[in-house]
Structures are given as C-alpha cells and as structure tokens.
Amino acid sequence: MVAIRVVASTSLTLFASTSSASCYYQSLSSIFTKLQFSPIWDISFAITPFSSSSSSRRVVKRMAHSIAHATLGLTQPNKIDPPKISFAAKEIDLVQWKGDILTVGVTEKDMAKDENSKFKNSILQKLDTHLGGLLSEASSEEDFTGKAGQSTVLRLPGLGSKRVGLIGLGSAASATAAYHSLGELVANAAKSAQASNVAITLASSDVIPAELELSTASAIATGAVLGIFDDNRFKSESRKPALKSVDILGLGTGPEIERKLKYAEDVCSGIIFGKQLVNAPANVLTPGVLAEEAARIASEYSDVFTAKILDVEQCKELKMGSYLGVAAASANPPHFIHLCYKPPSGEVKTKLALVGKGLTFDSGGYNIKTGPGCSIELMKVDMGGSAAVLGAAKALAQIKPTGVEVHFIVAACENMISGTGMRPGDVITASNGKTIEVNNTDAEGRLTLADALVYACNQGVEKIVDLATLTGACVVALGPSIAGVFTPSDELAKEVIGASEVSGEKLWRMPLEESYWETMKSGVADMVNTGGRQGGSITAALFLKQFVDEKVQWMHIDMAGPVWNDKKKTATGFGISTLVEWVLKNSS
To answer: What residues does the Cytosol aminopeptidase domain cover (predicted)?
Structure first.
C-alpha cells in the first residue's frame, strides 16, 4: 500500500490495493491449477482499498479457455506488499525537523563558498552553522560539488535529523527530469540506510516561480515513489524497504498540491504496472496473460472502460494476415486487445488511439537472433510498447479526463519458430489489402502493427500514436535514453514533444525521408518488410505509414533504447507519463 497525504488544513489518504491477477486454465497435471501473474500496484486516492468486482471475476472466467499453460520452469511470481509511504508538504524550520535523513537538493551554484570556505547559500549556511561547520568541511572532503547525480549522506550531530544528505541537481535544476532524479536518489539513500522517514527540500526553493512549485513537488514525489519500488516478484528472498514517510519542505501546502500529488500517484500506478509487465519473463507473461491483464483494467474501471479481446478466428474475419503471420509459429495463441475509454459524463470532442507493439517474446523467427549483441535473452521487452499503452490506460482510468475518447490497441503474440511459422520469402496480406513480401522474419513488429493501425483507423479516431521497440537502428542513432519520433504532422509533433517536456521523457523527431521508400519495393508484392541497414528506423516508419489513413494524424515512437535500463537491469516504464500528458492536452 502507498498512502500519500498533504499536511495543511486538510489531509488526504491514498491506498493501493495489492491484487493479483489469477489466470485459470486446465492443466495437464493435477499439480498446477492456476497461475498468479503478478500483484499490480493500484495507486489511487481513496478512503478504503479497492476490491475486485464480480464483473472482474467474470471476465477472468470468460477468458480462461484462451490462456496458455504458463507453467514452464514452474515459475510463479511472489506476492509483493508494497511499502506504505506518506507524503506531506510542510512549512517547517529545517533545523527542527526530526527524522532519519534530511536531504537537500543543491545545484553547483548553491555549493559556492566564500573566502572562509563557508557556504554562500542561506539554507546551507544555516545548516552548517548548527553543525559547527562540519557540513562544509565534509562536502569538501567528499569532493561534493552539486553535479547531477552526486549524493552524499552524512551522520552529523546538531540537528533534529539523524543524517543530512546533499543531492546534486547539476548546473541548474529547471527540468522535470532533475527533480525526478532528486526523488529517486533520496529513495535510494533511504533504502541504503534503511531509513523510515526522510525530508526533501531545495537549497534554492525561493527562486522557483510560484507557478512551478506544484510541478516541482509532484516531480520529486514521483521520483521517490518510483525510486522506492523494487520488482522482486521473481526473487526467492528480498528485503522490504523501511521507508514510511517523506516530507516535502518549502514548496507550499494546501488543496492544489493535494490534487497535484493525486495526479502524480495515478501516473505512478500506471508506470509501476508498465514496469511489471516488461519485467515479467516470457514464460509468465504470454499473449493470453497480457490480454487478461488488459481486461482486468476494464473490469476494475468499468465506469469508463470497455474491453474487446479478439481471438484467432475473429482476427481472420478481419483479414489480419500480417499479424497472424507473425503469430503462426507459437504454441501460445495471439490475442488482439482493444480497450476503449469514454469519459463518465459530458460530450466527446476528440477521439484518439494509442497503439502498442505487443511481442511478448521475439526469437526472430527463421531469421533467428544469433551472435553477440543480438540480445535474444532480453526479448521479453519487445512488448514495451504495449506496456506503455496499458500503463497509460491504468493511469487514465483513475484520472478520468473529460471530452476525450481513447482507444488502446495491442496485437499481442510471440514470434517463434516451428513448421507452421512464417518463412522468409512468404507473401502475407494485411487487413487493408496490401501485400508484403517477408524478406526478414525478425522485422516482425511492424507486421503486427500494420493490422493494428488499420484497426485503429477504423475506430474513427482523429489522431494515433503508436509505440514500439522497433529497430536497433534507432538505438544506434539516439542511444539508450532517447526515443525517436516520426510523423508527417507538425501539429502532432508539437503536441507530443510538448507533453514529453512536461513528463521529463526524452523524444527526438526524426525525418520521414520518402526517397528511402525505394529500398522497400518488392518484385512480387506491394512491399518488403525491411530495407537495407542504412536508415533502418526511417524505412520502418515509412512501412507503418502505408497502413494509416491519410486523414488521420499519426506518430510513430521508436522506444527500443529507453524501454530498458541496462545498468539497473530493469524496465523503465518509458512512455507512460508522456502519453497521459498528451491525452490530457486533448481533453476538455
């Protein structure tokens, strides 16, 4: 459970139910009777924990026949009891604050000292005076200069807190990402020290414009929530974090910040959900289990969501030959997921679609991934686009924006190898009638997205954003932390990139160079599914463009780089907060 409260004239409590999705199936052995995929963190402000409805149980039961036997390796996720964290925005003298760690976010400018080696910054000067000069002395010895990512935690007597921490914000802290990082670093310090309560303040909070105080506090809280989260479902032993409360000092109090933190927690719940989906191994998260998780969102938030899960026969009726060609080799059947959000009241003025690539595992098919750097062992992350879409759905289900209808679409399947599988040289036909010569079975994501995009356009939407871990070429071009965006619409580019600047996620617009389409022409079909090595991410985007109605504004986001943090060996939840911000920009 995660509880957030803002201390002012009133307080508001947030609970998170730790429910576990149970997927029932007929087992070949009497030993196995059910699979519990994961405990999903439902984070929302409420008076009581949310409990599963009877409609949710009915959805699970209806889908039971289609969920594959996910018992390979006998792996079942452990249940996690999320830590209960209370956030409070307070105005209090730092020297008087009592707790385990008092942390101060500092820029390089804040760390400037006078000719007597004393801090010039008034906040640091005050703390240092009560510590007898030990803070300035220790920071010099530790060579702490306030650079971004630097942190030092010192146990010094003289304050109400047991420890004092300095967290570097870099040359100037103005971006959302800097404050996210501050919250995460404080959470990491709390985990290392097994601290139960910490406080966060800024050395230069007085220079933050009043209109940015709410977003700054929200970004810090978001970083702390995500920083304290460890996905230990698949470890036999794990240590629970001791952190119980975080006080945010000097950034105001009152109902406005309560609402802002409520929004931050709704988004965090979606990000954590998305992380858990990507982290789950392919022997646990099959296409059927992914579909069940999507249906559970619609069941729990049935006031604003409906779900439609299409099986193989229904996809055949819609002539989705491109998608079904990819899925043909797997023993786990494909599931085409369509969630629809409609506001609880008011007129719908805008219709949007979010489309996510949903390859729960990608072997490469007959063009199997081999050799150093192929990362076949990480191909569980190839459904990162679908995790972003479903994570956004979970967050928006709680936020409930008005005036906008949103369709969440995922063509979930696996790309495997078998006698029934798609072969290099095969010609497949997408649901818009266009034919594709498959010259590489490892360029499969675009084949599934082709039918998903056609389906999205048929919903009568005005704008589509698709997200996919599509090409290694985009990672080569932009590295591991920036996603490439491709769109012919300047208006849509401005909207989505603007949303990413609010969320703190990094996007970079790439060219849609039409002349490169020459490399995608086939002698026997309308097109091939991959061109040469040069401009690989551009030709992939041009391929997707063939399946989008010209009247629909469309953007493709290639998130192959930022979907995974290789250093931390965990999913990032990338894309979710940007999608939520974009949907809200289109709401009334």
So the answer is: 440-447
